[in-house]
């Protein structure tokens, strides 16, 4: 219904024209507007209204059970950027996002290419790869916690081969350059969470890439083969460039998941020793609902919103341009 | 589309008509809010509610328990309901700062002095306990149960096999720990995936090192955290941490208790809900498979964690709530609840015969011991400080930087006084 309404707004070049056109709305258009009105109001209040409220709280002094909405300026933000835990959160989120997206892209493309080879039992494999997507992050977190815990699962094998089983709880940061209050680098313990998250979300990128690969007409490959290109060259020069737009979509969707991640970490590792697996979502929950630091919690939420916006806004702008 | 709209409207109508009788009832419902959903505690709560229904068949009761360890989720739900002026009829809250600096300071609670007078409770609960649920001379809640936080649990077989005695001082603790370590047994089990377990060890060291009076002074601000005795406690804590299991940060307290029950580790510092876990879940026998002593240096002292219930402001059925609270505070109510939960009654005149060997000894010690409020469980200081302390301890467990811990605690406590 939406597309029917929208052109009538956009096509009017001046207010007078659009006003005229608006008068011409027929019953159908009015009815469709009436149907989307409740959701417009609900989104305005419950999404944008509360984002604005959080923004306001993040600038207040409300850091106890008693609401104190006096203006505090950027105090809460300044506190966070000086805070050991929040600095660690930013570091962890950065490397978690980076490795998680790389893993999802690489494994997704690899498995999609594999499925595209017209193998036997393709639908079986496809279902196996997609299945983890049907689970919630909480379930994934609990399972992988058992699998990777030093006392159980995979590490019992590693121990048999004399390998260190304590990487899951490691507090090492590589290379660990002192930066402000934290050691900057890749926290080893984050790898465990990346494995679990990538295991769950790879199915999504497999589906996306597979759709992309299937959309490439067979004629193009034929033509390339006729020109004497090797299979490897066909992938490198033709197939991969043609699925590149899909990569952009996958990156954006995965980035917004990983920047906001909470449930997986909460179920699997918690904040971790020395906060090596802590993320802003967990910090926000604990500081707001355990410590009653409402303003600090709101500030964390706003920073999370802005970090997601870095990915989403350019995407929305470019996809709007693409439409018109 | 129109058909869909009609079905929506129809279903909305049918919903509203069917929910009407419910609404009438719920305005008079006695909603009991807690986080008691675990094995023994849920049974205890149900026994209480059953008893209440027998005595007051006219009052409808609703068990509004929210699941989640240590009440994390329940407290979040409670906070939003209280701030939305939709309080439950009565709710579980730890005595001490969590009650007094939280809800009482936020002006959300009604005083219960008249109920205490009517029931004659003022000499039935220990005075120190009544002080914990009072602010500015008024009493705000009724304690149901008592847990002890300063208990060192040990595997009796491991101790007997190695000819060891349960340690009573820090020196003895480290001697025992060294011997165990030499034998390849983890001396102290820790599971600090949730950092409050490590905070409990630290608070017990503080109590054992500072003594009751100075320990209490920390929370009133009369003793600073950069006091040499606090520093000494942090050094002891640091030393103790060198005797814990390597994978402590991936375990929770139950996992740590399991290490002790299996004999992989010898000792464990935890509140006496661990006894419930040993007995109910791991099927161990009290004083046969496991033993207990007060944590080093804290004999004769009682690190207290108490669950209490109060009366929020703005509740309609005040009379019913008070009816329920008077059952909670009665001997009958306390003896229905506590044996099942594995805690001891808050009243000093309860029926000892209903409790196991550990319970009997603890009831006796509770009467004589000096009480100390627990930091990790929100009795000693407001939640804001507890959160900061847990963070500082979490960092300390890894970095073992004494000065940094002291600085963080000092800073957190100075913020509190603003």
UniProtKB/TrEMBL annotation, chain A:
The chain crosses the membrane at residues 30-53, 94-115, 127-147, 184-217, 238-259, 293-317. PANTHER family: ABC TRANSPORTER PERMEASE PROTEIN. It is found in: Cell membrane. This is Carbohydrate ABC transporter membrane protein 1, CUT1 family (TC 3.A.1.1.-). It comes from the Bacteria. PROSITE patterns: ABC_TM1. Residues 90-317 form the ABC transmembrane type-1 domain. Pfam families: BPD_transp_1.
From TrEMBL, chain B:
Keywords: Signal, Transport. SUPFAM superfamilies: Periplasmic binding protein-like II. Pfam families: SBP_bac_1. It comes from the Bacteria. The keyword Signal applies. One of its GO terms (cellular component) is cell envelope. It is found in: Cell envelope. The keyword Transport applies. Gene3D superfamilies: Periplasmic binding protein-like II (3.40.190.10). PANTHER family: ARABINOSE-BINDING PROTEIN-RELATED, BINDING PROTEIN COMPONENT OF ABC SUGAR TRANSPORTER-RELATED. Part of a binding-protein-dependent transport system for a sugar. Belongs to the bacterial solute-binding protein 1 family. This is Probable sugar-binding periplasmic protein.
